[in-house]
Amino acid sequence: MTTIPAAERPVGVDIQENEQNRAVIEAIEADNPEATVRHMPGMVRVQSPGKLVINRESVEERIGREWETHEFQLAIISYFGHIKEWDDDQILIAWDH
């Protein structure tokens, strides 16, 4: 059995597809150039090798208002990986090993 290193193992998030979340999805795409985005009925899956970063500042630039990272809880359906960091400025999803 081959083990994929944590730096390459995919992490991601499923986000409800609606008008409010469009800016969040665009910000995630901009801050994670290796991410793939897959639109499905009612949701968007964003997946990236190793880690996925959601930056408050990037979301605010696109949404045109202040955005607090705890609002992300209202957008997500599920995620895969571990929440390594979640503070006022950034959310980081990655694997421990």
From TrEMBL:
Keyword Protein transport: no
Keyword terms of this UniProt record: Oxidoreductase
Keyword rRNA processing assigned: no
Pfam families: MmoB_DmpM (PF02406)
Gene Ontology molecular function terms on file: phenol 2-monooxygenase activity
Coiled-coil residue windows: none
Enzyme Commission code(s) on record: 1.14.13.7
InterPro entries linked to this entry: MOase_MmoB_DmpM, mOase_MmoB_DmpM_sf
Family to which this protein belongs: Belongs to the TmoD/XamoD family.
Protein name: Phenol hydroxylase P2 protein
Gene designation per UniProt: dmpM
